[in-house]
Amino acid sequence: MILMQLGASKVLFALNQTLLQHESLRAGSLQAPYTTEDLIKHYNCGDLNAVIFNHDTSQVPNFINTTLPPHEQVTAQEIDSYFRQELIYKRNERMGKRVMALLRENADKSFFFAFGAGVIDP
Questions:
Q1: Alpha helix locations (H) across 7-58?
Q2: CB 17 within 8 A of CB 61
Q3: HSE-CB for 13 with a 13 A CA cutoff
Q4: Helix, strand or coil for residue 53?
Q5: CB of 112 within 8 A of CB of 44?
Q6: Which of 42, 74, 120, 121 sits between 20 and 30 A of 54, alpha carbons compared?
């Protein structure tokens, strides 16, 4: 549903850019800023202030690429903003509302909530 709202031409652009990024990673011409192992290591060491946690670690692919022609950079920015809003911010809002509802409806119970960092290993 989220992709349908974006429109076919932008979905195709996003898919092409994602494939190009993965091909570049596999070929070694693009370096990921961190790996899942990096995140686990810093978390296990209690190093939550590490440089790695200051990166944008969302699962939304970064379509912003300065090598794109200007009109494609605009498209990339629009897609990036749309995905962040739909896949990250709205998700966080929905989760927060669900947590608050559970807490209000079950004030006499204890809960443990675990939230992901929203990262993937490219």
A1: 8-27, 36-44
A2: yes
A3: 21
A4: helix
A5: no
A6: 74
- Asked whether the predicted pLDDT for residue 50 surpasses 80, the reply is no
The percentage of the chain sitting over the pLDDT mark of 70, rounded to a whole number, equals 77
Q: In the chain, where are the structural domains located?
A: 9-105
> Whole-angstrom Cα distance, residue 35 to residue 26?
14
Task: Identify the residue whose tokens are 């929203």.
Answer: 118
Helix-strand-coil split of the chain, %, nearest 5: 60, 0, 40
Look up residue 47 and give its DSSP letter: -
CA–CA gap between residue 93 and residue 97 (Å, rounded): 6
The residue whose two tokens read 């443990």 is 112
- Whole-angstrom distance, CA of residue 8 vs CA of residue 16: 12
